[in-house]
Each structure stands twice: as C-alpha cells, then as structure tokens.
C-alpha cells in the first residue's frame, strides 16, 4: 500500500495537498487522530485500497510524539510510506489567517495567534525531519499543487536531488539542506536588455558563462554536492534540497539551479524549483 502522510503548520497548505492527492486517486482522510491510523490502514488494505493519504497535525495532541514510531511500524509492515511536511514563515501564516478569518486550531482566549503558531512550530519540530519539507511562504496555490504532483511521481527507493533557486531579499527557504550564495557574481539585472529575462533564457546564460568566476563557482558547487552526496545517501535521506540564492532569484540563481540539475540528472533523480518565478 502507498501511504502519504501530510503534516505541517496550520495555514501552510495541507488542505491543498490533500485535494491534489484526492484528485490523483488517493483515498484521503483529513485530521485523523493518530490512534486511528493503524486501524484505518488495516481496514483499507482489507478493502483493497492501495493508495491512502492522511493529513495529521498538532490537534492530535500528546499522541503526536508517537508518529515517528508509527511511521517505522507501517514501513516494517511493507507500506510504501512518504511524509510531506509543509511550513511557512510566521508573518505569512498570520497574514493568511487574517485574510481567511479562520481561527488557528491552537489559539484561545489566552493564546494569541502568533503564540499559537510558535507553539505549533515547537510541537512539530521533530516531525519535519521525517520527510520532505516544503516552504510555502512565497508559493501560490497552483505552484504548490504542481510541486506535490512532482513529489508523488518520484521513485521512492532513490534519493531525490532538488535544486531550488531563490532571492535573498525574500529570505532563505525553510526547506533548504544546503545553501549557496551567488550574489558575488556579475548581475544581469543591471543590463537593460537582460533585466526582463530569467536564467533560463539564452542571453542570460551567455552573460553568466562569460564570467570565469561564475564558471569556477559553478564547478565548486557541483564538486561539493558530488563529494558529499554519498554521505547523505548512506544516511538514508530521501531528499536533499540544494538552494542557490542571488539577490532577486531571477537570473543567476535560476541559471545555477538549472545547470546543476542538468549535470546530475543522468545519474540521480532530480527536481528543479524556482521559488521567485513560481
């Protein structure tokens, strides 16, 4: 049985993720108490269901600490289980709750919205490492849908290298494992004809590739990932997110992410994300 557990902070997009999984044929359950997880899996397996998606969050209370053990048990029973953890910056979550006028599940008359978000973040801190983290702070709903579809289509037996471009002026992605800074390189933004383009356009590629420093930095980053990737594989990591940042996330970082992805794609399972272009 294929099982996807969707967890993360309230307001980070769990409902969107569950809707995507339901659309592609998963039997979906939202806000399931952890005590019911094993009985539900047993029941649906008996009924012949082979794909299950479950949203679990901090409302499970104290039993939430048992999730790592439950995940290990289900995998030992032969389940093909994946965990997707969604998160976002506190200010983004505050804005989302303000716009929707929803109440945070952990807030109360004595707990403010920001305090509830921090409490939930602390409660879920040990869960984020169980699976693939997605920072939805700067993502549209449509971009998140595409990213979820990309994830569930991957071979789960292999590590996935994810190259993500971003702009430092918008903050470092929360889901990054390795972060490289390419702001020291010549910036196409200051060339009028290149400004509206991105790092995927040939004129920008030509501009960056004309810089010896850019090519040297590219080689260094590629060598670093190549040298240390076996260690992450031996650590049984399912994903490794390599984030490349420039100032705005439009030119240099996009070029680096695309070029590195192409270099590793023949040997590894690779995804590419461009946070500021999404």
From TrEMBL:
Boundaries of every RapZ-like N-terminal domain copy: 1-150
Entry annotated with the keyword Nucleotide-binding: yes
Binding residues annotated for GTP, in chain numbering: 57-60
Binding site for ATP: 8-15
Record has Nucleotide-binding as a keyword: yes
Keywords (A to Z) from UniProt: ATP-binding, GTP-binding, Nucleotide-binding
UniProt domain RapZ C-terminal: residue ranges: 160-277
InterPro entries: P-loop_NTPase, RapZ-like, RapZ-like_N, RapZ_C
Identification of the protein by name: RNase adapter RapZ
Species, as recorded: Thiobacillus sedimenti
Phylogenetic placement of the source organism: Bacteria, Pseudomonadati, Pseudomonadota, Betaproteobacteria, Nitrosomonadales
Gene encoding the protein: rapZ
């Amino acid at each position: 049985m294929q099982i996807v557990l969707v967890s993360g902070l309230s307001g980070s997009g769990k409902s969107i993720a569950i809707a995507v999984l339901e659309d592609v044929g998963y039997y979906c359950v939202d806000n399931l108490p952890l005590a019911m997880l094993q009985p539900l899996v047993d029941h649906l397996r008996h009924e012949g269901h082979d794909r299950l998606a479950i949203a679990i969050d901090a409302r499970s209370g104290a039993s939430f600490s048992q999730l790592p053990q439950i995940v290990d048990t289900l995998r030992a029973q032969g389940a093909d289980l994946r965990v997707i953890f969604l998160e976002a910056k506190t200010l983004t979550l505050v804005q989302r709750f303000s716009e929707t006028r929803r109440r945070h599940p952990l807030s109360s008359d004595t707990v403010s919205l920001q305090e509830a978000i921090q409490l939930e973040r602390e409660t879920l801190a040990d869960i984020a490492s169980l699976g693939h983290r997605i920072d939805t702070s700067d993502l549209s709903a449509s971009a998140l849908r595409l990213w979820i579809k990309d994830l569930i289509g991957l071979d789960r037996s292999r590590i996935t290298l994810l190259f993500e471009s971003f702009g430092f002026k918008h903050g470092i992605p929360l889901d990054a494992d390795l972060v490289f800074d390419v702001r020291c390189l010549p910036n196409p933004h200051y060339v009028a004809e290149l400004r509206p383009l991105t790092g995927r356009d040939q004129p920008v590629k030509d501009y960056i590739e004309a810089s010896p420093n850019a090519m040297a930095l590219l080689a260094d980053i590629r060598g670093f990932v190549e040298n240390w990737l076996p260690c992450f594989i031996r650590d049984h990591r399912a994903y490794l997110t390599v984030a490349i940042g420039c100032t705005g996330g439009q030119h240099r970082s996009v070029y680096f992410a695309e070029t590195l992805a192409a270099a590793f794609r023949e040997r590894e399972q690779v995804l590419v994300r461009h946070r500021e272009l999404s």
